[in-house]
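Changelog entry: the NADH dehydrogenase FAD-containing subunit record was regenerated in this release. Current contents:
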Amino acid sequence: MKHRIVVLGAGYAGANAAGRLARRLHPADTEITLVNVDPEFVERVRMHQLATGQDLKPRPLTDVFAGTGVQVRLAQVTAVDTERKTVGVVDADGPGEIAYDTLVYALGSAADDCGVPGVAEHAHHIAGRQSALRLRARLADLAAGETVLVVGGGLTGIEAATEIAETRPDLEVSLAARGGLGDWLSTKSQSHLRTAFDRLGITVREHTDIAGVEPTGAFTADGHAIPAQVTVWTAGFAVHPIAAATTLQVSATGQIVVDDTMRSVSHPDVYAVGDAALAPGASGTPLRMSCASGVPTAHQAADAIAARLTGRRIPPNKIGYTAQCISLGRRDAIVQWVTPDDQPKPSAITGKTAARLKEMICKAAAWSISHPTSMLPTRRRHTILTQEPLATTV
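Regenerated structure tokens:
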């Protein structure tokens, strides 16, 4: 009987995990099913581009995984039963179940309103394709001189504000950040970031805590009103609630607690990757939610699963960061070099060179998804009877 591997979610983490498992394991022994509600792979790192009117290359999942042995199941995941080892889904035929022997949980995250009143009702976000398209339509309706407020001073907020300002220089764009603008970056990067904001005419509201959102803008904790025809909320992400509803051990954030191999510490037949996992990083602190974390955790999980199933040694966890890439429109960017534990180094690349480098990185990430069996390793190994983890690593 084939070993059934079910991967939930086809974002950067889930799609990479499925493709790598297909390269590692022989199809005669394993059955890999990838479950996703969207029929296409969504380049989440480009949602700010989609929201400002740019069209993205379609990547249908059935085309991506054709001939790989990965079965694509288009369905909404509704539940996970870790005791019965089943996944509840709803697809075009109605509700159903998928049984698994090994589960890879990669459902990712969505926009988090942080409990702030009015965000769900009145703010836009760019955490997914449909929400980005809704913002796109709303921005297209704005007349010259109207205002857009971006809430959140992280990478997503900076990219959204600069993309909107560059695409629509006729709008008044502002960004509200709880801290200082880019205050986690190196001195060189902070200086370049402020220069870019000045060039694009973006008003920066630093050390501003947004306490509520209304149809006509937002208001701060001290009662100050910030008028805006459109408010874009980028102040945080929250994981899908399904894991917290199971018997899996999860963190306070709802992320599945995993070991160095991305294996659940409470259920050895479940792995979590990407935003869904509370995974240890280079210094022992959890990896941040990002594509930069999602892809390596997917590789780590797939390699560990393959090693355990084929009786080979489990590769060590070497996940660490190299850079933070921040686009500032289409012709400017910052590539901030960081330590393996994500602390900024003094050095950074800025300007057009950084923009070209970031674009190359984004294209490479999408290419790896579109060519799931073209990347190393390519040797497909047969499984063995025992599926217990080996004690040693290499």
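Residues 43 and 57 are 9 Å apart (CA to CA).
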